Amino acid sequence: MFKGSGVALITPFNEDMSVNYSKIVELVEYHCENNTDALIVLGTTGEASTLTENEKIKIVETVIEANKKRLPIIVGAGSNNTMQAIEMSKKYEEMGVDGLLLVTPYYNKGNEDGIYKHFISIAQFVKLPIMLYNVPGRTGVNLSISLLKKLSKQKNIVALKEASGDISYACEVARLVPELIMYSGNDDITIPLMSIGAVGTVSVLANIEPKVVHNMVYSYLNGDVNEAKRLQLKYNGLVKALFVEVNPVPVKQIMNILGKNVGPCRLPLGEMDKKNIEILMKELKEVGELN
Is 235 a catalytic residue? Predict the structure, then answer.
């Protein structure tokens, strides 16, 4: 679907909590100019669970228009409601996006047969390439190796965003389901996952350090393992700070500190604790973003 750094794009809001569409245009331009390799829209970092259907459609329209076909656009269409996921996936395909990100059903979870049929049902209604999104910390469900094997036989299920944080599990996916292209879903282990075959990352860090994440990934792809390792380790303190509270609260806080003016998060995500803001400030200084 892409190689390199796919930014898990935030959704900016105005102070009245309406979507700031003009800021989305600015952010897309920023990423096009700063070496981001793909735009991942309406994911966890984009606060998709707080958006209405009409807002989601308008956000995707805005990104498509601003992007001008420069970068691949992959849109989060996942849901714990299979029929809704099918409907939105078809809509995004009609709009002209390049791929879909489908999270594992959450809350109602589903058993293995149900999850298999959920993903296959969506895949059979669209022709777009699909990236599965394994994030058990959010969904309460870990995609089993046997299930991934079955799903990989569907021709347009081609990739996996692996965000379990379990490197042993990721190694088994790489060994036993090599048909699925792997992307790191955890910024702190991007290079470790690339060492077992991942070709890129869906990155929260790329919202604030797009060139760094691109350079880190491409250093590894181009054989400069030492430089990739150096960047991974240099920025892991900042990455840790990005998750000192639930994502995307810290990354939006940092963007506002750096003058991006992306606004607050929508409820139920509230304001950051002042002590945690101090942690963010310290790590920004460590990497040279603040004097």
Answer: no
